[in-house]
Structure formats: C-alpha cells, structure tokens
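<goal> How does this chain fold?
<sample>
Here is the protein in question

***
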Amino acid sequence: MVTSGSVAIKSARMTTLPFILRDYRAGDASAMARVYFLAVRDLGPRRYTRAQVAAWAPEEPDPERFVVRAGDGRRTLVAVDTDGCVLGFGDLEANGHIDLLYCHPDAVGTGVASRIVEALLDHARTAGITDLHVEASELARSLFERHDFTLVQRRDVALNGVPIHNYLMTRLLR
C-alpha cells in the first residue's frame, strides 16, 4: 500500500510537505523507536505527569522491538516525508487491536495520524475484521473519537510501578 497526502509542519512559516503512507520496511525500526520516544517525551506532558511520562518511555526503546512487532503478522503502516523521514506509524493486529499509533511531535495536528487510522480501517475492512479496539492514551482519545470509536471505559494501569491511565475504545465496521 502506498498512498500520498500532504502534511503542514508548524514552524516559523507554515509549509506543506507531501508524505507517503506505506507498509513497514526493513530499516524503519530505528526511526520508529525515535518517533515513539519523542512523541511520549514531548507530547506526554500535555496530559500526563512527569513521573508517568518517564515510566512510559524511560529511554528510547530498542529498535528490535519494532522489528519483532512488524514481523508478527500485524499490518504496520509508516508515514514518511519526501526525504524518507518517518513522520508517524501505526499498526493493526489480526484480532482488530490497534496497538501502536505514534506521530513525530512536529507532525501532530497535521492529519498524519488521522490518515494512518483511516488506512488501518480500510485494511480492516479488506481483511474482514469487523471489531476493532484500542487502548487510547489521553492524547489519542479525541482522534479515535473523531474516527467513530466509542469509549468503553477508562483503564487505570501501572507502568514500571507508576499509575497511569488510558481508554479502552471500540468500533464496529460495517
């Protein structure tokens, strides 16, 4: 799958950068690990405490974690700019679970994450997956609501011994 779109990056002057949404490729894992870490560390404090953010991403994860996930049968999509830099990524497991959805802080609010969700929904339809679920962070909850996911419950969990919460959300595809 390769689709394209454009993303406006907020800077001193507003610019629009084209991006491509494609399947995971060997070599993406290091950039995905970096995007994950930057997203949690830079955006997390908007809705979570410092202790929660530090527990969520104490350090940049080992890229092998992303290699393993991408190779376990799930559909992993990566948004890249025209230079091949990773702007965001997301995945969908065969059981309908959206496990990861992360966007580089510079690409937040530009539609990249929304396009990834739309593509995962399209893949689910094609694969015959009708029941989707996600544990959305406080940061991602409104994005999933805009894509017709319904809040089931707030989940209070512990990461590395630190209390944190997310939201179990579901969507039925017809």
